Every structure is written in C-alpha cells, then in structure tokens.
C-alpha cells in the first residue's frame, strides 16, 4: 500500500498505524511520535510503501519500506539520517559503511507482528511479512534491503530462511538492543 493506493484499502492504513502505536509506544516504550492513537514519523511519506498483513480487517503485522534515494525536506531515510546526526534517538555510528543512496537499496523499518498472532502462527506470519517486504523491494528494482533488527537477528534470520550481513555495531535504545543489517532481497525465495 502506498499513498496512491490508500483508497483501495479502506481504513487499513489507520489500523496499521494504530497497531504500530501498540507495539512501539505502548509495549516497547519507544520515544516515538503519536497522535490520535496512531504512531507515525517523518518517514511515512509518499515515497514509502507499507506492507500490511491482515485477516478480516485485523492487522497481524507490518513493515514500512523506503527507497534510499527518498528525500522529504531535510530527511532521507532513517539509517542515513542517523548517520548524518539528524536523529537524536539513534547513534551516528549506526552503520560501518557510508549510508547508501542507491536505486537498488531500500530500507525496511517498523517491522512488527502483533500480539493477536498466536505463537503457533508467528513464524508463518513473519515469513509472509518478509516475503511481502522482499517483493516490494524487488518490484521497485531493489537488490538489497537494509534495516535495524533486534540484536538476536541471526537466530531470527535462520528461522525465516534468510541471510543477512551485519553492517553496524550493536546499540541499545529505549531498552532494545539492535543492529543494522543488509539483506540480499534476491536471495530470498518468493
């Protein structure tokens, strides 16, 4: 879903942003923006695309995708803006490399699965969400997806059947230890 297709999905974007608030603000206690019961930030722009898994109108999970060539005012994408010192909440050494600005690299952020997904279905939902994220990247010409993931990403990636390369040191913010990684989008079987 993107700004041009929001109208095709009823109130799904609102439900997705409400689910993000529940996960990132209410549960994880991150210091993120909220208004009218929804979590959003400067990266929810017409340049982004949202992958939202839902059943019968209930959001199961989601992820936001943004091309690394995106630009909106002073902002580009989260990892690059952190590296450039524009985000107080993230360290400037979040990446070992210079943040790419390339057509074939997209950033994934705000990846989540909601609590309504039972443990018995969690892996399935994570795989479907990762497949959707990868498909959006590939459909838009991306070969790589970068993002910040929990520091236990290697175990998570193994469960999903994907490989990732760490491209930043581990860091802790708001009680969550994370690390920047790079996924080969074309290496994930869709």
What oligomeric arrangement do these chains adopt? single chain
Secondary-structure element pattern, one letter each: HEEEEHEHEHEEE
Kindly, what is the distance between the CA atoms of the first and last residues, rounded to a whole number of angstroms?
19 Å
Q: What would CATH call the architecture? A: 3-Layer(aba) Sandwich
The CATH topology is Aminopeptidase
Query: What's the number of extended β-strand segments?
Result: 9
How many domains in all? Answer: 1
Beta percentage is 25-35%
The level 1 CATH classification is Alpha Beta
CATH homology-level superfamily: Gcn5-related N-acetyltransferase (GNAT)
Q: What would you note in describing this structure?
A:
- With 190 residues, the chain is an alpha+beta fold.
- It has a single domain (6-187), classed as Gcn5-related N-acetyltransferase (GNAT) (Aminopeptidase, 3-Layer(aba) Sandwich).
- The protein is built from four helices and nine strands.
- The strands form two sheets. Strands 3, 4, 5, 6, 7, 8 and 9 form a seven-stranded mixed beta sheet that branches. Strands 1-2 form a two-stranded antiparallel sheet.
- β5 (105-113), α3 (119-139) and β6 (144-150) form a beta-alpha-beta unit.
- The mean pLDDT is 92.
């Amino acid at each position: 879903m993107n700004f041009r297709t929001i109208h095709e999905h009823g109130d799904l974007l609102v439900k997705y942003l409400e689910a993000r608030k529940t996960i990132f603000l209410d549960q994880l206690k991150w210091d993120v923006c909220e208004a009218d019961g929804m979590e959003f930030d400067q990266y929810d722009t017409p340049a982004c695309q949202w992958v939202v898994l839902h059943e019968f109108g209930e959001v199961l999970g989601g992820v936001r995708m943004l091309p690394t060539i995106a630009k909106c005012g002073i902002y580009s994408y989260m990892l690059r803006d952190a590296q450039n010192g524009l985000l107080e909440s993230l360290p400037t050494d979040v990446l070992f490399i210079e943040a790419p600005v390339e057509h074939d690299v997209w950033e994934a952020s705000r990846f989540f699965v909601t609590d309504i997904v039972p443990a018995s279905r969690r892996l399935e939902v994570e795989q479907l969400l990762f497949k959707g994220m990868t498909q959006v990247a590939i459909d838009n010409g991306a070969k790589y997806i970068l993002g910040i993931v929990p520091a236990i990403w290697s175990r998570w990636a193994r469960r999903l059947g994907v490989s990732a390369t760490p491209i930043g040191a581990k860091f802790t913010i708001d009680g969550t230890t994370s690390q920047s990684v790079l996924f080969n989008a074309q290496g994930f079987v869709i």
